[in-house]
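Prompt: Have a read of the protein record below and flag anything odd:
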Amino acid sequence: MKIVILGSGGFISKAVQNELEKFKVSILPIPRKKIDLTKKNSSKKLAKIIKSSDRVFFAAAEVPAKNEKMLINNLLISKTVCEFVNKISPSYLLYLSSDAVYSDSKRLLCEKSVAQPSSIHGIMHYAREVMLKNSYKSKMCIVRPTLVYGKNDPHNGYGPNRFVRLVKKGQNITLFGKGEELRDHIWVQDVAEIIAKLILFKKIGTFNLVTGKVISFKNIAKKIMEASNKKLKGEKLTKILYTKRIGPIPHGGWRAFRRSNYKTIFPNFKFKTFDEVLPKLIN
């Protein structure tokens, strides 16, 4: 068995590779510097090194997709993969998508919720899902994680990753509005473990990777400050500041999920809470 990772240089894909290595399986990482999937004939390059018996983890993307150029590049990447799987159908394909494919709702979201994205990022992922379904007819799995956090995140997005880095630099944490938005945050190591298991057991279907619990950005910032205070034994730290919000609050201030489909196949798996992961972020 060989597992191919398309986009092996990414935050999540690196964590998945580390997890798969624990199982002593053969892994072929393909980062962008090795094969640029936006280029012509890149599907032919894939066909030369990937066999029909291989399993493919498709994580290659320019994320978060914020503009039309990034959207087009991501669709070109997907086009390359679709051309490849048409030529050499691998035994299994797992696509790393996003919960951004769902529209906002006052109800708890789940895999049966309508995929009706309003952001460029969400549109990109949903378009790629449709492209893959039309091109690949073998065993496929789609995972849609919510906000992923962890030490090695390169995006420095608003939330745990940025807040921890600011505190370590002695800088203030600035929140939008009162930081009251409630969101589901998931630790990258938990995401990696679930994805690795899905690949190893060749599970098919669509799975939201969510904890099922929400926490406000204000509470996240407070917990980080408190943990940092304990670590530095009372030394004076930075402050939490609040800035006037420009425009409407994202997602109406609340975006939550119900129990995910992964629970039906991995009933004993439990995602770590933010409190459990926090010491790993601070240290």
The two ends are 37 Å apart (CA to CA). The mean pLDDT is 94. Residues 195 and 201 are 10 Å apart (CA to CA).
